[in-house]
Design a protein that fits this description.
single chain; 467 residues; Helix Hairpins; 49% helix
Amino acid sequence: MSRLFASVRARATLAATLVVAVALVAAGTAVLLSLRSNLLGEAGTQAERSARDVATALAVGTRYTELNLDDDDRPVQVVDESGTVVAASEDLERITGTGVDAVDPRPSASPRDDDGDDDSGESLEAGEIGEPATVGDGTATVDGDTEDYRFVTVPVENRRGDRLTVYAGAPLSAEHGAVNTALTVMLIGFPLLLAVVAWVTWLVTRRALRPVEGIRREMAAITASEDLARRVPVPGTHDEVARLASTTNETLAALESSVERQRRFVADASHELRSPIASLRTQLEVAAAHPELLDLDGAVEDTVRLQRLAADLLLLARLDAGERPADARVDLAALAREAAEGRTGVSVRGDAVVQVAGSRGQLGRVLANLLDNARRHARSAVEVSVRRDGEAAVVAVADDGEGVPAADRERIFERFVRLDAARSRDDGGAGLGLAIARDVAVRHGGTLTVHDAPAGGALFELRLPGA
């Protein structure tokens, strides 16, 4: 069991760590992508600003040689319609990503085609600047330093009508540095955070499972000692573990009651069996020594008592085992008339047909037990009534005897209980009839209760769901 708790803790810790790891990876990826996107956008804005500055100077008529292209961080190319570089940053040694690899300016004498058409694909007025466009990422070597850049292009037409394209780049070193720094922080911080999460989860689950371990130890002690009176500790947390402990104690209480009832049942059954067995043995021993003294009627009577008691015990055992009754249609009115037939002083009245679902044999046993009990206590008459009460079927057995005291109206349904202690077992039986009757009623989804009869005796009411 300790291994089980350890594995539960390990699984909980692993699950929590995995969930946090997935969340951190997703959040980290989103942060890195957002950071890179923002920094690339900023680099594009800077490159566009540089390209616009140069395009503005060209638009107002600044000569190629007079352009201010000395910003070492932002390489610039000015290209005419024929693809010739007419101006470039002074220290630009190499460039890729703009589509024009030349870095040495070569001013063109005739920047326009003979027909005067513009090959750039965009019609511009003299001195007008076109819309900027992002070319993409590339590299450039400026004054011996090679770096990555984001390039933007801006079309422009100067006052002479020359159609030019300005390429300007902004360094991506800040973007690379920020992304690498963030990635480094994540690679160092995420494992540390996961370790903290795993450690905290391990401690929390250990504390949460500590009451469960206490329950386990107490259950192991109860199993070893077989002392069902002991109970497991209930933590004061009012959570699932507390409810588990409460349910465990309820189960132990029910088990203790069941075992005690079983022990009492075995003891009472042994006591009830001892009398007819002892009587039968005595008669047989006497008959063996003196055959002429054999009381055959008494031996038969004791044998019949044993047979009935064994049948009652077998039925109770089957009911305790949870045997489900048959689902047949049974007419309680006809069954009551059959049970009353041949019994002196018993009358049956009520509805002609009252049907229920269940076992005909077990329900017949209930009515027979109720009539036997009523005849033993009645002065002169027993009345059986069968009726419908809404969706329920009701059988009432009333006698005109002394009745049952209110304090004993539940106790009489216990096994081997006889209120009249002076009554002989021959006359009163073993005290199982009413217990069997109630158990059968409960198994059929009904109830069996006792009240005061109109004639002053006892009224036993059997209520079952109607078919």
